[in-house]
Amino acid sequence: MKYLLLVCVDESIEVSPEQADPEPWVEETERRGVRIDGHRLCAADDATTVRGGLVTQGPFAETKEQIAGFDIIDCADLDEAIEIASKHPVASFGAIEVRPFWPE
Amino acid sequence: MSDADVTRVVEEAFREEWGRVVATLIRLTGDWDLAEECAQDAFAQALARWPRDGVPRRPGAWLTTAARNRALDRFRRGATEEARLRALASAPADPDPEPAEEDHVPDDRLRLMFTCCHPALPLEAQVALTLRTLAGLTTAEIAAAFIVPEATMAQRLVRAKRKIRNAGIPYRVPPAHLLAERTAGVLGVLYVLFTEGYSASGGPSPARPELAAEAIRLARVLAGLMPDEPEALGLLALMLLQDSRRAARFDAAGDIVTLEFQDRAKWDHDEIEEGLRLLDDALARRRSGPYQVQAAIAACHATALDPDDTDWPQIAGLYARLARLAPSPVVELNRAVAVAMADGPLAGLRLVDTLRADGRLAGHHLLAATRADLLRRLGRTAEAAQSYEEALALAPTDAERRYLTRRLAETNGT
Q1: What predicted TM-score, i.e. pTM, was given to this entire model?
Q2: Where are the domains positioned within chain A?
Q3: Is B120 in CB contact (< 8 Å) with chain A?
Q4: Which of A73, A74, A79, A82 to mutate to test the interface with B (most CBs of B within 10 A)?
Q5: Could you tell me the residue ranges of all domains in chain B?
Q6: Between B5 and which of A4, B1, B105, B393 could a Cys-Cys bridge form, CB atoms 3.0 to 4.6 Å apart?
Q7: pLDDT tens digits for range B194-213
Q8: pLDDT, tens digit, 9 for 90 and up, residues B115-171
Q9: CATH class for the domain made up of A2-100
Q10: Distance CA B32, CA B28 (A)
Q11: B302, B307, B308, B310 alpha-carbon torsion, rounded to 10°
Q12: In Å, how far is A42's CA from the nearest CA of chain B?
């Protein structure tokens, strides 16, 4: 099953680069063959929202936690997806939403 | 056997076997709705055929086979892919028809329990799904038990089943590294079910004994399926020890009778015996947990000959232990009550006031009611009356409101 991991952080929280370093996690998930794709994103300030033909600056939702990156994984079931997400470094200071792909 | 007898046997089989049949059919078909429909159909067939053919030697195996055949029919008529059909046709719904080997029939109910109580589902959906699939309550019955419209409950169940499918919640007993955490979730759902039956959170009736009985039935199944899990035994013991007071908790008018004034002859001594035995079994495994500690507290009450015989220092100590194992403001409140009984109302009031200051129990009638009782015992009647009024405004059931009104009148009268 495929899942999108939405990696969310409160941008005002300061974390050390080592604490937030996703590289070991990326290596591990690729070695296991579960990570299909993913990337870190620019800050929410750099986002542009298009809604009903109107263009506004900033992210679509004014929340404290903003999407900082995403990963697409393919694994057996939700328990495995949870296990993978919980090992992501951001899971210790931010939040990771595990969203299943729409069934084909 | 008369038709009435057969109906009774089928009803009994329904209570005993429904969960097992549904659990097996979910494993075989992967389709929760189909599993329920086929189980229902199997029981309808039993009602039609058992009066004519006699009750089978193993009703559960008969029902599972009938349900599986029904699923096969449905799959053959539908456009089910060949592979799935072959898997279902060859899967042993009941791999061994010989009664001597009955113990080897796989019991899928444990998978079903863990899946229903998966932490990715909202708690209220976990409770509803457990009642529907394992206990066989209808959507209307579950809706009535939780005082929500039937359509709301139906939607809750539909959403939960959709999430299980879409999110890929696995149908299995979790592996060892997840087992402890997930078992706590299952125990929690069964306890929510029991407490909702034991003291209703709203509505006209102060308790729903049928819901508590269902919770006990499910806890018994769980304890049977996890014989080495002391907390499962502890939970069953706790439920039995609390439930043993059922007949004494309300008077003829439906008013609450507090523990102190209950007629102990009305307690169910068989339930107490069984609860104590289960608790001993659990404690012998030397792996403590919050349900065992709560059962030990219930056992202190159950074995006291009269209120004055209650070992309050022991109970206060057990609450302190519970507060470390499973910290919660409600546990702190109960500890305060026990401390008040062991060391006097002033010691209890100090703990209650600490709790009151931290605000976590704001809006909880029991905090105000407990404070009122302690103030009354200290002779501070004006403050006591004020606290009773505060509790009265927050109390969720009619029986509790009547109890508090009575106490308020007594306080004002003295």
Answers
A1: 0.86
A2: 2-100
A3: yes
A4: A79
A5: 3-92, 311-414
A6: B1
A7: 998 887 666 667 777 888 99
A8: 999 999 999 999 999 999 999 999 999 998 888 999 999 999 999 999 999 999 999
A9: alpha beta
A10: 10
A11: 30
A12: 28
